[in-house]
Amino acid sequence: MRTPRVVAPFFGVVGTVAVWWLATALFHIRPLFLPAPPDIVSAFRRQPAYLLHEAWATVTETIIGFGIAAAAGLGVAVVLAASRTVERALLPLFVALNSVPKVSVAPLLVVWLGFGPRPKIFMVVLICFFPVVVATMAGLSSTPAELSDLVRSLSASWWQTYVKVRLPWALPQIFVGLKVAVSLAVVGAVVAEISNPNRGLGAVIVLSGTSFDTPLAFAAIVLLALISVVLFYLVASAERLLLPWARAITG
Amino acid sequence: MISLVEVSHAFRGRAGAVEALAEVDLEIGEGEFVAVIGRSGCGKSTLLRLIAGLITPSSGRVRVDGVMVTRPRPDVAMLFQQPALLPWRSVRDNVLLPAEILRLPRPAYAERAQELIETVGLAGFEKRLPHELSGGMQQRAALCRALLHRPRVLLMDEPFSALDALTREELAGELQRIHMDLRPTTVFVTHSIQEAVLLADRVVVLSPRPGQVRKIVEIAIPRPRSFGHNAHLEEVTEHVAELHELLLT
Ligand SMILES: Nc1ncnc2c1ncn2[C@@H]1O[C@H](COP(=O)(O)OP(=O)(O)O)[C@@H](O)[C@H]1O
Ligand SMILES: [Mg+2]
């Protein structure tokens, strides 16, 4: 018997919430430590406009940063993969840069970019950029030998090979990179907001900490999780729509 | 049409050079169908890749139509063991790939693609993506693509070996018809003796590494030939036995 794809995750979520609720009730856990689900709902209902407004700030930072990172990452990878020399010159630098914990530069970003949304967007770009570059380069260098032989036996030019075979073949892997990036994007935005809390759900979490309003922090966290999930599914759906053949080659 | 003179080829690897072919001499006439058999690793693919211009020999000369082969030529087409179709293109667009790459006029070739697709029995599947087809149908599409721009030489590297027995026979029959029809000079690598005897004018037997021409067997049976019952059963059996002997010893 086949069940629709949303049924299992739905029961997973409902079950988890039920266990959590039961635990808070059974062990008399105070809302300050771990609020029960209804506490979180009422925290949201106390000031929905405020929370949605801050959520929107986080969403826009995330989407703008992700968009910039995707475009820049693709561009850089395409250039890098075009020439062995450029690749060898720059790839070690990228690997080194990528191993810098991005969180550690959050305070510096304020110095460089001020207090507005720009340091947050930049943090999202920093976090999303490398997964896109790495996945795209991997995709561009994964063309199967028989396809290279095929186009070579037709005397295809470098450009024809690139546009007609290498790039489309890389698309499924590019989407792997985009999915990793989009799931990190919200993290980037929140980290930047927490280190410079003037707007966004990160700021809400910092504020709730100073006023011991744990249910409010949880409401913000639930919103963050929702944003993350929705953004991920948007990218995954775009892939299914644009590359119906991708499943066939990734097995 | 194709001539190899004292062709040797060695691959340089980490563990020293691997001698794949040694002193191969071979003349293949215009329109001829030559099958190449030999044990796995004896240099059959290397031989084809040399003729295709995908690699250049360590020593010796490879000529196609009197011209030294130094790089791939558009009038030499190749068919591989895998269909090597582009998974994002429909059957028709896959078949039309050579026309695109060689910048040939699309309308005329779209018509030809349609004819070829019908010849191999893929009518009705033009708009399907490769993963929606069976292995045999994919290989038929690849055959159409190889024939699209009327190549004068057709090189095939174990094209049917990934298919089940019945599909193989079917495709071999189709290949015979296509060859009788269009007469491309054909070099057909196979490890099936039956296939070689069914299809070829001559069968080249390569010895194990390094590959050398061990013997060339003429198959003088009139076409069309068929597997199963036919009037030349005795000759077929004789050739099969002889080739078997040559491969095993
Ligand atoms: N690119 C390569 N690099 C190194 N050795 C190779 C390469 N291609 C083939 N060889 C070696 O050359 C020999 C002949 O290979 P191949 O022509 O593929 O044989 P066949 O097609 O008859 O099975 C084998 O021993 C193989 O390992
Ligand atoms: Mg081979």
From TrEMBL, chain A:
Alphabetical UniProt keywords: Cell membrane, Membrane, Transmembrane, Transmembrane helix, Transport
TM segment ranges: 7-29, 63-82, 89-115, 121-140, 174-195, 215-236
Membrane topology type: Multi-pass membrane protein
Family matches, as PANTHER family: ABC TRANSPORTER PERMEASE PROTEIN HI_0355-RELATED (PTHR30151:SF20), ALKANE SULFONATE ABC TRANSPORTER-RELATED, MEMBRANE SUBUNIT (PTHR30151)
Species: Planosporangium mesophilum
Protein name according to UniProt: ABC transporter permease
Assigned GO CC terms: plasma membrane
Location within or outside the cell: Cell membrane
Residue ranges of domain ABC transmembrane type-1 in the record: 55-235
Gene3D superfamilies: MetI-like
Family note: Belongs to the binding-protein-dependent transport system permease family.
Pfam family, one: BPD_transp_1
Gene Ontology process terms (BP): transmembrane transport
Record InterPro entries: MetI-like, MetI-like_sf
From TrEMBL, chain B:
ABC transporter domain mapped to chain residues: 2-233
One Pfam family this sequence matches: ABC_tran
Coiled coil: none
Keywords carried by this UniProt record: ATP-binding, Nucleotide-binding, Transport
Highest taxon above the source species: Bacteria
GO molecular function: ATP binding; ATP hydrolysis activity
Family matches, as PANTHER family: ALIPHATIC SULFONATES IMPORT ATP-BINDING PROTEIN SSUB, TAURINE IMPORT ATP-BINDING PROTEIN-RELATED
Name of the featured protein: ABC transporter ATP-binding protein
Species: Planosporangium mesophilum
